[in-house]
Amino acid sequence: MLQCSRLSFTYEDASQPSLKEVSCRMGQGRLTVVTGPSGCGKTTLSRVINGLIPELYEGKLEGECLIGGEPTTARPIYRLSEQVGSVFQNPKTQFFTTDVRSELAFPLENTGVQPEAIQERIDQVADLFGITQLLDRDIFSLSGGEKQMIAIASSCMMDPQILVLDEPSGNLDVEAVASLARILGRLKDRGLTMVLIEHRLYYLDGLADDFLVMKDGRLTEHLTPTAMRGLDGPSRQARGLRALNLDANEDASAPASVATEKTPDLLRVRNLTYAYHHDQAPALNVDDLTLSSEDVTGIIGRNGAGKSTFASVLTGLLKPGDRSEISLNGTKQTARERVEDSYMVFQDVNYQLFSETVEGEMLLGARRTDLFREVAQKLDLERLLGRHPNTLSGGEKQRVAIAAAILSGKRLVVLDEPTSGLDLLHMNQVTGMIRYMRSLGVMVIVISHDQEFLAQTCQRFITFRQGRPVRDSRKLGNLLQAL
Amino acid sequence: MRPISIYTRFLLVIFANALIFLTLPTPLVLAINIYFCSFQVIVGRVRKGQAWLLVCLVFALGASLAMVFPENLPGHYLLFLFVGVGRVLPLVLVAAFMMGTTKVSELVYLMRKIHAPQWLVIPVSVLFRFFPTVRHDYAQIRRAMKFRGIAVTTGDMVRHPMRTMEYIYVPLLNNATNVASDLTSAALTRGIGDPGPKTSIQRIVFTRLDALMCALGLVLMGCGAYVAMFQA
Q1: Which of A51, A271, A432, A434 is deepest in the core (most CB within 10 A)?
Q2: Are residues A229 and A278 in the same domain?
């Protein structure tokens, strides 16, 4: 079906090739996972397959990629797209219209299909994806998982033979990943050939037929699912891969405690309530809960369980109900005082980078400037200090955002989904940074759906359900069941 | 709640733009503004309609008191506010209505119908898609600023407008750049470059209510033109 032979590509401004003589075959109806650390060239490979190279990204392309015997470069991209559908990482930025129905119609309207035929195809695809009830919804009102479902549905509208998905789970929560896996299974049953670029591998066990491992632009290994499952911790780590089986890393738990000279900060909340509208039931309801800077606390729960609301109230962004009380080491605090004592690192750190240089960014609003050298060194930012933050890679931007959080000298740092779309190396780096914050006596709270990451980072796990903490434990267990 | 046809909307935009060039008596301006507000109510946004109506009334009151404003700085300021800003009020009303309630697919349909070139159709449709994104981005950026101790309250924002603007627009633009490049990839792989004829599943309705509102609009437009000519 799809065959690459000695494929090499160098981006226009790059000194190093991103793909080096990659040769592989992907059989009809098979699901092939291409994995490897960030920057290994897997996204570049996907761009050659769907024709974005050379259409959008210019550079030097050698070798060829054949689909059904014909090179991808032989046709204009709008013809190639009839055969190769594409799905990208961020569900927010891959739709054009504002309502689901016209979004699905979009590819077919572009290629001049008759309206009646489009309607018919919409009904078929909606049925296959189980999204009929979403057809007349506003896309902006959908959850991230639903948006990603629409994106996949829209790329299937032209009835392609090959589907290329570039980190489709990157921005999704556990449940959305589960439904993503279901839909991939259904597409596979229908004989679709799929190429999946991924870091998170756990949801692909039982779905994937082949695993291609890349490193530094080269295809280094071709593993069967059995061989992949058989990899032990160290050999997986050596390849920079995340776990295929989540239970395997239960034992890799975080150390129970770290010795700090400082007496720990205690943040206590009582009768905490918050309602988004006066006439609605509160979205948050916490009777009595004390958090300590000795623990890194993981907040888990389904979408809409109140995790973000809890974090927003703790950091003073939202003002809680009248009887609510938040106190730090016994002193009551107002929302304004909470903002002064807190910091939040967003899932999308692009919103919190304001400066022209990394150094300026780290020092903007900083109170612990004495730590500047140490933090720059610990977070591996020394060689980036003069760069513009927007020219950095995703992982580097995140390190800058965390550096700014540490230097702000605030006593509480909340990290919202810090590992979405990160490979093993970067995930471990985030764990290391959190450990460092904890050793400085900073209280760290992590909101995450990432089981692998939570298990190795947190000492305490609080599960939220319908705005209430329902489980408070030192053990994580299986995340999907725990919710 | 009833839909308003894209053709009617098109007429509204032309009407509001034409008004900029005319100096009309306050009661007529008020009548025209009320006409614009009524569209919000028709499509079911009653609260929004009421709020805009209130704004129109305040401006009408201000404009009719123009003669009694004192001959000093605050007086000139008031005059500028009610007469100068009041002049663009119809445009603001129509923009608020269009951006909040127009389906991008209808807009694209209309533009293709009037044979607008592809290089215009695509940017305009993407622009409409951007507005809700910008609103969300703005909220996120304001939160990030609070944690950095920049313009924590609205008061701080008003006191240092230039500084605040910079902190808002840098991340806003950075994000827009990223979104734009993602959207380009998605568009290209969804056949946007196909030079062949396009189709649309959009059905354009033009109801009796549309006809009525258009007629009303034309009457008001006629009155405006007549009064403007008569004055000249």
Answers
A1: A51
A2: no
Q: Which residues of B touch A110 (CB under 8 A)?
A: 190-192, 194, 198
**Residue A401 is assigned to a structural domain of this protein:** yes
User: Per-residue pLDDT averaged across B82-97, rounded?
Assistant: 90
Residue pair A212/A181 in contact by the 8 Å Cβ criterion: no
DSSP A45-96: HHHHHHTHHHHTS-EEEEEEEEETTEEGGGS-HHHHTTTEEEE-S-GGGS--
pLDDT digits (tens, 9 = 90+) for B159-190: 888 888 888 888 998 888 888 888 889 989 99
Residue A28 forms part of a structural domain: yes
Which residues, numbered 152 to 181 in chain B, qualify as contacts with chain A under a Cβ-Cβ cut-off of 8 Å? 152, 167, 170-171, 174-175, 177-179
With an 8 Å Cβ cutoff, is A337 touching chain B?
Answer: no
Q: Which of residues 196-225 of B touch A (CB under 8 A)?
A: 196-202
In a domain, A254, yes or no: no
Q: Are residues A186 and A318 in the same domain?
A: no
Q: Compute the residue count for chain A.
A: 483
Residue A258 lies in a domain: no
Q: How many structural domains is chain A composed of?
A: 2
The total number of residues shown for chain B amounts to 232
From A220, A249, A278, give the residue that closes a domain.
A249
What does the pLDDT read at residue A261? 62
- Tell me how far apart the alpha carbons of residues B101 and A463 are, in angstroms, rounded to a whole number: 39
Residues A295 and A379 in one domain: yes
CATH number, domain of A10, equals 3.40.50.300
Answer whether B201 sits within 8 Å of A315, measured CB to CB: no
Confirm if A296 and A458 have CB atoms less than 8 A apart: yes
What pLDDT was estimated at residue A348?
A: 87
- Rounded alpha-carbon distances, angstroms, from residue A197 to A40, A170, A213, A385: 11, 10, 10, 31
Domain carrying residue A385:
266-482
Q: Does B118 touch chain A (CB under 8 A)?
A: no
**Cis bond before residue A54 (omega within 30° of 0):** yes
- Which one of B152, B174, B179 has the shortest CB-CB distance to A390? B174
Residues A243 and A299 in one domain: no
Considering only CA atoms, which of A79, A87, A80, A86 is closest in space to residue A65?
A80
Question: pLDDT by residue (tens digit) across A255-311?
Answer: 555 555 678 899 999 999 998 887 778 889 999 999 999 999 999 988 778 898 999
Q: Residue B26: which residues within 8 A CB-CB, separation 6 or more?
A: B60, B63, B64
Domain match, A394 and A428 both: yes
Instruction: Please write the tens of the pLDDT for every residue from A125-140.
Output: 999 999 999 999 988 8
**Tokens at B61, concatenated:** 């009151």
Among residues A249, A281, A304, the one where a domain terminates is: A249
* Beta strand spans in A167-265 (E): 193-197, 210-215, 218-223
Question: In this structure, are A123 and A167 located in the same domain?
Answer: yes
